[in-house]
Each structure stands twice: as C-alpha cells, then as structure tokens.
Amino acid sequence: MIVAVHQGPFDRLPEAMAAAAERGAELIVTAEMGTTGYHIGAKAVAELAEPADGPRAAEIGALAAEHKLAVVYGYPERDGEAVYNSAQLLSAQGERLANYRKTHLFGDLDRDQFSPGDDPVVQADFKGLRTGLLICYDVEFPELVRAHALAGTDLLLVPTALMRPYERIADLLVPVRAHENQLYVVYANRCDTEGELTYCGRSTVASPDEVVAKAGPDEELLFAELDPAVLAQARAETPYLADRRPSLYRSLTEGPRA
C-alpha cells in the first residue's frame, strides 16, 4: 500500500489528493487541526468547531470519493459544549472509518482550547492493516503507543503540529516508537508559521526497522510504501510484545507498592 503525507497548506489539499491518487496512493494523511489552523485562539477555534459529520467532513468526503483516496485530517470537533482536537479517517468512498479525540493535551495552548478525549485506542480496518489514530503530543507517551500495539495496531497515523525547537520528536522519537512497538508510524506535520510558532516539517514514515520516508522543512508531498510482510518479519525477529512481563510493570500505572 502506498501512503502519502501532505506537508503543506490545507487549502491545497485538493491538488495534493489529485497528485497522490495519480501516484497510486490509497491514503493521504494531513496535519493536526489542518482545517482551521492550530494556534488561532480559543475563541476562533470554538467558532469554527463542528460535529464529526459536519459540513467540512462532507466536503472532504466528497474529495475522497472523487479521487478514490482515503484521507486523515485534523479538525476542531464540537460535541455539545465541548470542543475536541480531533482527527478523522474517511474511506475512499468518503465514509467515516474512525474519529479520534486527542487524549494528551499539550500545555496551555491545548488546554485553553480543548477538552481531552477519553478513548486512548481508536482503530479501523484499512486495506488489511489494523489502523489507529493519535494526535501530535500523544505519540510522545510510550504507554499510549504500547496500548495500540497490544490492541493489534499495524499502522499508526499521527497528524501533528510540531514546532521548533522540537525537531528531535520527528527525527528520533517517532522511529523509536515504530521499532519498540513493531508497527508503522505515519507522522504528518506542518511547515508554516502561526503567531510565534514555526512548524518544522520533517514529516516521517517509519517501519520497525527504518525510516521509510522523510520530508524536509518545506512544503512537500511525501510518499511511502507499506508492506505487511515487513511487520511480520520484524515481529518474528524481535518479539517485544511476546517477551513482555506485565507483572513487573504495575508501578507504571498503579504506582509503587508500599
């Protein structure tokens, strides 16, 4: 399966989807809060938030159906009085396969705008791969990615808004998460500026064994080929999940024993 990452302005998504479809991609992944912008102020975010099945979902679903291309996009989701930092996976027919609400909020920037999601593992079956969603800061928590691995996730899609000077997350941490959990990670970032934030690009697609594709700091349409056989071989050679000893790790969630 070929996956594309759109590291560029969201208003150019139609052109990116057309180009990705022409290259044979079956999925395109975009950045965190791409539909509205991320650092635009809590009031603006609240005014632009809409339900998971709102007008923007219909618009992007129509693009997906037109290009026969599944898509992941980040957006502010309204549910009653709450607003969530969410990411949605739509099929190549424009139908919702999964919707995830960011569970780990990053500092005041997130907390001033969003409620935290409570469902850590959201998955869908896509092209023979068990596919999960996380958003930006979430992937920096090893427990959360391990929860995905234990739930059978093969492909972890992570829209992000990684800013300078945190390039090390894309360069170092994302490949490690893929290796230690024996899954693919697709980390889709921005490369523009909002206020005092400069997003660093460097979108990354990592397998358990290597960085399959890597973007630079500027606008780019990144492509990577994902092979389930790579996962099977990595899991056989380095069986981290099978070799775990959960009884030793209780303190990670329960605290040290008295």
TrEMBL record:
One Pfam annotation reads CN_hydrolase
Keyword Hydrolase on this protein?
yes
Source domain of life: Bacteria
Which keywords has UniProt assigned to this entry?
Hydrolase
Coiled coil (UniProt feature): none
Keyword Membrane, does the record have it? Answer: no
Tell me the InterPro entries matching this sequence.
Answer: C-N_Hydrolase, C-N_Hydrolase_sf, RamA-like, UPF0012_CS
Example GO molecular function term?
A: hydrolase activity
Domain CN hydrolase, residue spans: 1-228
**Family from the record:** Belongs to the carbon-nitrogen hydrolase superfamily. NIT1/NIT2 family.
- PANTHER family, per the entry: DEAMINATED GLUTATHIONE AMIDASE (PTHR23088:SF27), NITRILASE-RELATED (PTHR23088)
Q: What is this protein called?
A: Carbon-nitrogen hydrolase family protein
Supply the source organism for this entry: Amycolatopsis rubida
Q: What is the lineage of its organism?
A: Bacteria, Bacillati, Actinomycetota, Actinomycetes, Pseudonocardiales
